[in-house]
Design a protein that fits this description.
The complex is a heterodimer of chains A (337) and B (248). By secondary structure, chain A is α/β, with parallel strands linked by helices. In chain A, 30% of the residues lie in helices and 20% in strands. Chain A has twelve helices and eleven strands. In chain A, the strands form two sheets. Chain A has a seven-stranded mixed beta sheet. Chain A has a four-stranded antiparallel beta sheet with strand order 5-4-11-10, with no helix packed on it. Chain B folds into two domains: 6-152, 3-Layer(aba) Sandwich (Rossmann fold); 164-244, no CATH class. Chain B contains ten helices and five strands. In chain B, helix 9 (215-224) runs antiparallel to helix 10 (229-244). Chain B is globular and about 55 Å long. The chains are: A alpha/beta (337), B alpha/beta (248). The A-B interface holds A 30-34, 36, 53-55, 59, 64-65, 223-230, 233-234, 244, 246-251, 259-262, 265-268, 270, 281, 314, 316-317 and B 28, 31-32, 35, 145-146, 148-149, 152-153, 158, 160-163, 165-166, 169-175, 177-180, 185-187, 210-214, 216-218, 220-221.
Chain lengths: 337, 248
Amino acid sequence: MARFYLEKGKVAAFIAHLQSQKTVYAPHRKGRNAFAFAPVERPQDVVLDYPRTVSSIKKYFLPPREELLSFNLAENTCAQPAVAPLDAVFLGVHSYDVHAVLKLDHNFVTGNPERNYLTRRQGALIVGVGFTPDRFHFSGSVGIPAGDTTGCDLFLHPCEGGYALEVLTPAGEKLVAGFKLPAHTSGLPAAAPFQQHIYVPQAKLKDVFAHNYDNAVWEEEAEKCMSCGTCNLVCPTCYCFDVEDAVDITVTRGSRERRWDGCMLRSFTEVAGGEVFREEPAARQRHRVYRKFKYISDETGEPWCVGCGRCTASCTADISIVSIVNRLVNDYDAVKA
Amino acid sequence: MANKPRVGIFDFTGCEGCELNQLNFEDQLLDILEHVEIVEWREAMDGQAEELDIAFVEGSLSTPDCIKRIHEIRRKSKVLVALGACAVQGGMNALKNIRPIEQVREEVYGQDKYLFPTLPALPISSVVKVDVNVRGCPMTQLEFLKVFTSLVMGKSPIEPGNSVCTECKLKDNECVFEKGMICLGPITRAGCDAQCPSFGQYCTGCRGLVPEPNVEAMEEILVAHGLSMDDARKKLQLFNANQLEGVS
């Protein structure tokens, strides 16, 4: 499909053009060094050149806190809140976060379809943007280059003086329609190299993970880990949650809330009766990494980690998923050699 | 409701801020009184009750008289709720526990110290059984109302065990460490909706440490962010001197 040239000076007008059609969510600066997706109010506040956002766009389809049910104990009634398709444009999404949404689509459509997620997801249009890998990104190692356009309707490839705007779907074409842009005729600049790598393909990782359940790395990393759960909560492919019923002060009306939870948290592994089924922090660390590279991957043939680097970048204890995986690979090679 | 639960509110060593916070429920106070009958509350009324369904207890135990009183309260109460950091962990009062008790006594009371017997400041749970904790300094209204409604319904309230970090992440907050500050959020119990980090402050640990906290790892991180080991320890002791010493 077509490719246009969007010079930097026209980006704000282009965002306004998108806004005239749908609600637009895009990265904004939040705090000193952080970025977060938020609804666009002023196009000039949108930041398209950013390392990563705190949460991914997952938060719009699977909200951090969500009312699943409201009830009335006196009348013995309950109601599900209305959930509608978001019908919005997600602008400035990095390739790994688009892949993460596609993976969540798989998780939520398989088995018991997740009605709320799948409903909100309908009609979401994605405008991807390229990024310069920093010291935490490693999506290239899990098959997702910075310029990968999978799942996008439009894609903004950074180039000299602005962006090459690639049209990928009819919906994307419709979004651009009416906004006059010159064609982009030159080639795309080579993507900047990744600084972090996992050195083996998923096919080999399958063996690596099958043989490292008792590796010493789990215990070693657990010594540094505070089990704060940050790595789970910032992960764009994590979807575990907790559900809690609470009543308001009438003690009659109440609601059931679902909120994000994570397997690194001791309380997550605590079940009715007070039993904790994954008591050791080392076992929780292993479970987290196995969820990204083995348990789902053995079924789908793909890593369930998208290489965004969030877990590592936000870990105050500097625990690196790349170091863990490479350590497992090395130990596996040493044993097999 | 035919038989409203009979409630007593008690205070020990503390600033009475948590109690005061109960009077601050301006929008809910009348609703609260719909559900319970308050029969004993020194701060707001006269008289003592023989029997209680729920006792809310604020403050730490720091004198021999406190020990006697808490036993009396426990004896006459079906459910005992510890209210706020002092009652749950010993709170800031427990800072005195890290110094020789005679020295502390002399500093405060001087030559009259023999008139004021004192003990290390202890959490209520170290002396009698506590059924429910409402944490924080001061306790938060949000959590109090959750506990209150659960008890009125005859259910056990859920005590949050996650870290404060999880609540920051639910709100897309920038990590406090990213701002060049330190924070005790990683090993502090959630339930406050990450109030302090959300308003530009760092978490001081007022809600107590998470179950099985990795204190050594937290100390190392504080040191890596520029604190001396001594200062790191002091930051952690502010609200959790007892828990760090294994008293709970």
